[in-house]
Amino acid sequence: MGDTKQSRPRGRPRAFDPDAAVATAQHLFHQRSYDDVSVADITGTLGINPPSFYAAFGSKAELFGRVLDRYACDGAIPLRQLLDPARPVIECLAAVLEDAACRYAGKAGASGCMVIEGVQSIDEDAKRAAMVFLVGAEAAIRDFVAAHHPEAADRVMDYMTTVMMGLSTNARRGHDHDRLLESARLAVGGLERAMTLPR
Predict the structure, then answer these.
(1) Rounded to an integer, what distance in angstroms lies between the CA atom of residue 105 and that of residue 177?
(2) What is the span of the domain harbouring residue 146?
(3) Residue 8 has what DSSP assignment?
(4) Residues 122 and 187 both lie in one domain
(5) What is the pLDDT of residues 173-194, one digit of tens each?
(6) For position 24, what pLDDT does the model report?
(7) What is the DSSP letter of 126?
(8) Do 176 and 83 share a domain, yes or no?
(9) Are the C-beta atoms of residues 25 and 67 closer than 8 Å to each other?
(10) pLDDT, tens digit (0-9, with 9 covering 90-100), for 68-81
(11) Are 89 and 176 found together in one domain?
């Protein structure tokens, strides 16, 4: 996911750092949502002009794609780590929900899940970019459950997505860490039922 660095186009400020710009844009998108951040907001925050922005990133949606790549590395739920085949399935899934609650509570006003919020964007390009990450996360959960409980894999995946979307929405509404964590722990009871329902 590394970027290929090229010579700076004419007109781009000497101090312009694309990686730092992506980090700044990540905070803007996370804090205010993709739809509520304009190119003018981004260029004003970065201190660059629109031609420099488009030369560096192509479009706001393309910048969002790079932001999502960065978010996947340093902000998203570490599914590979939490979905441990050596641990009980319910224990792992509960850990995912608790981790979601902690991360979605956010800091410095950046709350919720950037991927979940992204799939609700009115911009189709941004929505498609976010969907790639959401579908990948759902597949990881489904495959993990299917290895132990194939009959429950689809409904558990759907349940997990539904709960995490609710946690993200409530985080954006202002629910704090403790409140989100309580909701996540209450949701484990429904998760246990989803695992044992007849087909």
Answers:
(1) 5
(2) 76-196
(3) P
(4) yes
(5) 999 999 999 999 999 999 988 8
(6) 95
(7) H
(8) yes
(9) yes
(10) 999 999 889 999 99
(11) yes
